[in-house]
Write a structure and sequence with these properties.
By secondary structure, this protein is of the alpha/beta class. It has four domains: 104 residues, Ribonuclease H-like superfamily/Ribonuclease H (Nucleotidyltransferase, domain 5, 2-Layer Sandwich); 122 residues; 156 residues, no CATH class; 35 residues, no CATH class. The chain contains 19 helices and seven strands. The strands form two sheets. Strands 3-2-1-4-5 form a five-stranded mixed sheet. A hairpin with a 3-residue loop joins strand 1 and strand 2.
Length: 503
């Protein structure tokens, strides 16, 4: 069967043919293929460190060593051993070292090397796992040293010290939220075991009404009619009769004991989160104000003035819920970023705070927005063999910033904004998973631009976005018709031509 000229397979074959002509230096393609340069040492005094929980294997260049002295040494993991490791590297005039990001064991050694003036290249273990020969710690450090000597290792991202302190606190706060949620589930399980379906009568078990009812049950109240009197007037999920039926059950002393301990555990973690919020406020105060931003490049298509005037300006409601920050960090976050990221669709104060803790505010660490999206794992893959694209699947990454953006994309998909319409358009064509990834990538590009150039987020009118989508659709139809040998004609032009025919 002949492949249609407009099919994806035909386009792929044509593209591969053009690449083949280019690679063979066809007269129609005068640009030659750039040959690879020979490997030359870049870091002549480089070291490779294989970090472990109990021992650290260190390899240095063999030049300058005494006869019979091994270029590989083994040090312990205690502070005394790490200090001896740093002194040995300084004695051997090592100015840079490469190490794998293995768990959390590299953190203390990284700080000691950095304080000693040795540049540390932290690399992803997945990038250097292919060691020639039998894999061992003794060979791993030598392989790291050799790769780092020729500059073949990509340095992993690590934010500055103030941002790292904020990141430690935000991650601790996330752990407290998970621990509190576990105790909340234990409370619900104890109630359901006693056939008390309070979670079906209330939208939130640990709301004001739910906590009053649980405390009354623990105080000895068993009458459903008396428990319903603790109901808030704003409860709309169930009626009074339904709530009375939900609070009618059989009470068990063991389950009441579990319920009391789970409630005390949940309250404990709420207090822990309040203390963590106060510490986060101090960490935000230690982060310097955003510096002057570079001049933004000119836009390919300027935003119309009337579109900016008709931009939807809906003030966001303050975040509510049990996990919301007890302190308002809005002013501090805006001071650090130089712009208000909370205006972006799908993001709130807590998500922006966690995002800053993961990526910081210095976007110069990434050369472009595309590189930033690639680091987040939000770009299509490039698995190509023999000129044929085998897969465009996004690579799997364990990146907390990517998770935050994906959750923000899912929330933005429920809004009636241009980002929400983009999410629903991709979802109808590719499915919800692809739509979340595509929308998260769009949010990443927006955040990169806002942090780098300190510009405000402009929420365009939906009519501008729909006009842009219609223009792209019309352009695609014209290309497909031209590839098939046809031409698109407007219906109005056809009607005028028919009207001009006499009789």
């Amino acid at each position: 069967m002949k492949t249609p000229p407009s099919s994806p397979a035909a386009k792929r074959h044509a593209r591969n043919a053009r690449k083949l002509q280019h690679q063979t230096k066809h007269p129609g393609f005068p640009v030659p293929v750039t040959p690879l340069e020979e490997l030359t040492p870049i870091h002549r005094r480089a070291a490779g460190i294989d970090v472990g929980s109990a021992q650290n294997y260190v390899a240095i260049p063999a030049e300058g060593l005494a006869p019979g002295e091994s270029p590989v040494r083994v040090f312990g993991a205690f502070s005394v051993d790490q200090d001896a490791l740093v002194e040995w590297l300084q004695k051997q005039q090592v100015n840079t070292a490469a190490m794998e990001a293995t768990g959390i064991y590299w953190l203390s050694l990284y700080d000691k090397l950095e304080m000693a003036g040795i540049e540390v290249c932290l690399v992803d273990p997945h990038g250097v796992k292919a060691v020639p020969g039998r894999k061992s710690d003794w060979l791993d450090c030598q392989w790291l040293q050799k790769l780092h000597t020729y500059g073949l290792l990509a340095k992993a991202f690590r934010p500055d010290l103030p941002v790292r302190r904020l990141r430690a606190l935000t991650r601790q706060r996330a752990e407290l939220v998970c621990c509190g949620a576990a105790h909340q589930h234990h409370m619900d399980k104890a109630l359901v075991t006693m056939n008390l379906h309070l979670s079906l009568a209330l939208s939130d078990l640990v709301s004001d009404t739910g906590l009053r009812v649980i405390q009354a049950i623990l105080d000895g109240q068993r009458d459903p009619k008396e428990l319903v009197k603790l109901r808030d007037v704003r409860c709309k999920k169930s009626s009074v009769a339904e709530m009375e039926a939900a609070l009618t059950g059989s009470y068990d002393e063991e389950q009441l004991f579990i319920l009391r301990q789970s409630l005390e555990g949940w309250q404990f973690y709420q207090k822990q989160m309040e203390e963590c919020d106060r510490r986060i406020e101090k960490a935000l105060a230690a982060i310097p104000k955003a510096g002057p931003a570079p001049k933004a490049p000119p836009r390919l298509k300027a935003i119309p003035a009337d579109a900016q005037a008709r931009a939807t300006k809906r003030p966001k409601r303050p975040q509510k819920g049990n996990n919301a920050p007890t302190t308002d960090f809005t002013a501090a976050v805006v001071r650090i970023c130089g712009t208000d990221l909370m205006k972006v669709c799908g993001l709130n104060l807590l998500s922006v705070l966690m995002l800053i803790g993961e990526i910081g505010v210095d976007m110069s660490r990434w050369r472009s927005a595309r590189a930033f999206c690639s680091w987040l794992g939000l770009c299509p893959g490039a698995k190509i063999s023999g000129g044929k694209v085998l897969s465009r699947r996004t690579r799997k990454v364990h990146n907390r910033a990517s998770t935050i953006l994906r959750l923000g994309a899912w929330a933005a998909g429920k809004t009636d904004t241009w980002i929400g319409r983009f999410y629903r358009r991709v979802k109808a064509r590719r499915g919800p998973a692809k739509a979340v990834t595509a929308t998260a990538r769009k949010l990443a590009c927006v955040i990169y631009h806002m942090l780098k150039y300190q510009e405000e987020f402009v929420l365009l009118d939906n009519s501008v976005y729909e006009a842009k989508v219609e223009m792209h659709r019309l352009r695609r139809l014209e290309k497909e018709a031209q590839a098939m040998g046809y031409q698109l004609i407007e219906q109005k032009a056809v009607d005028r031509a028919l009207a001009s025919i006499p009789g």
